[in-house]
Amino acid sequence: MMRSFYFLCFIWVFLGCNSVGEETPDEEWEEKTELYRRHTANEEYNKALPIAIELVQIAEKKFPQSFSLADAYNRLGLVYLNTKQYREAESYLKKSLALAKKLNSPSAAIHQNLALVYQETNRESLALDSIKEALRSYTAEPEVDSSSMYQAKVILVELLTTQQDYEQATEQLKEIAEYGLSSGDSSLIMTATSAYVWLNLHLGQYETAIQGAEKLLSYYKRNNDKQRYTNALSSIGGAYFGKQDYEKAIEYFKKSAEYKLTYFNDSAYIAVQLKNIALAHEKNNDSTTAQYYYKLYNRLRR
């Protein structure tokens, strides 16, 4: 049940390399790429989507079989992931992976992104295989991107937690925390804190989970990170649900849903919150209201 309370912290990792001997991307390509990055940085994924599609079309026409095309596939896959179009995300990320392998270019980031798709679609076994492949690929690269590698380890912690391998998840978290503190990587520390909250929800340590989630709220509010802010609200709702304080759980689930609707203007973002609200009302012996929210949830799922 607690699985439905968890929301992914999406990790944006790009290939960012050009092929030797390929046609050099022109000014139009660079402008569209920069616009894409601005939209994704502002979490404006619906605005980023048509630009990502254009970049793929340009790359397929002007420089097929290139690192730039693999990069474009990866970016489009990531936008589809963030707009919850998982079938399309998986398709383009697999295209990116196939081309990257053909060109013998680094593929760790693509494996990592595929792991996110599998994780979000509840295919934990595939997600675990992908994230382990990502970690193997990171260590095999000439220059290890330590920040991205440790972000991949956070995903591994989440998956280990889901599979109830709490001992190994805890060991991995300690390693991540040590690196985050020594490197001063606040973003990694907060991502690890999110995984720590998820672990504590699974362990039934709800007060500790709430304390961690409140730290996340403060950090994400300061950094204007809207999606992760709503995820932290939902985590607090999940903790209150575990404490059987269903009124408080409903309060935080509703806050998360309302915030997402306000900033993303897309009802697809609130499906899980609607289900959580329905569950909380059901547990609170309010079957009429629960059925109302179940109907809203099922409508969105269709």
Characterise the protein shown here.
This protein is mainly α and 302 residues long. Helix 2 runs antiparallel to helix 3, helix 4 packs antiparallel against helix 5 and helix 11 packs antiparallel against helix 12. The N terminus is likely disordered. It is found in: Cytoplasm. InterPro entries: Bac_ResReg_Asp_Phosphatase (IPR051476), TPR-like_helical_dom_sf (IPR011990), TPR_rpt (IPR019734). Pfam families: TPR_12, TPR_8. This is Tetratricopeptide repeat protein.
What would you say about this model in short?
This protein has 302 residues and is an all-alpha fold.
Helix/strand/pairing category: mainly alpha
The tally of helices reads 14
Shape: globular
Q: What are the low-pLDDT stretches, counting only 5+ consecutive residues below 50?
A: 1-21
Gyration radius, rounded? 20 Å
The rounded distance between the terminal residues' Cα atoms is 21 Å
Strand content: under 5%
Fraction in helix: over 70%
The biggest sheet, with number of strands, parallel, antiparallel or mixed sense and barrel status, is: none
**Secondary-structure element order, as H and E?**
HHHHHHHHHHHHHH
| Average pLDDT number | 89
Q: Count the strands?
A: 0
